[in-house]
Amino acid sequence: MKIKTTTSGPKRVTTRTIAEMRAKRASIACLTAYDYLTARLLDQAGVDLLLVGDSLGMVFQGHETTIPVTLDQMIYHATAVVRGVERAMVIVDMPFMSYQVNLEEGFRNAGRVMKETGAGGVKFEGGDRTVELIRRTVQAGIPVMGHLGLTPQSIHQFGGYQPRAVTPEEAKRLTADAKAIADAGAFAIVLEKIPAALAKKVTASILIPTIGIGAGVHCSGQILVTPDVLGLYEDFHPRFVRKYAKLADEVRSSVGKYVKDVKDLGFPGPGESY
Q: Would you say residue 252 lies in a domain?
């Protein structure tokens, strides 16, 4: 499906659009993107928000975690994604140690992302420790998305990818963090791998949208990692991923046919030569 456009192009999704969708209870469709071509296809398919996620460290670079990803790498990928988009809002993950050192450095790095990529906003992982940074960043005119629950940049602290906020104490802390992040001016919060009942409660308790990933159907929207959705990434199989295609099999099959044709001198043919 291709989005119909006018001569002036499709209407851009902004923070205002996202807020209006929440108010109308219209679910927000989000996916990750790391390159121009994929971003263009996802945008044409009608995705509302594209996250240039530091998940690229795993699905694009082949690392075991997101931690090795640098700010320069995020800017490089985000710039390519923005060039491929006409409608969707593009949000960029602030990678590990680009904002944890101190408030000033995090603020400047967020500004650098906005200036160099043309993206629509940034995302910070974490609860109360990010509140002041969110407040200052938003005051400077930069839209901010929060991220609570399983925060991959803290994976070594957590000791694995187990669900978060499963104890009453942690659930209470997450609920308080969500309110603090909303009060600081964030336009949305990602809730990753937390109990669906808690995600429903948090969504009802704040005035900004929640975007779930492994957090149940009652969030304001959903996000998944695109190579997971398309069946391209085969190293990790979280239960919350629904695979809509098996493109890894398609790629292997197609490339295998190409290799055979080349080796059998079946390609190129007369009509493919000059």
A: yes
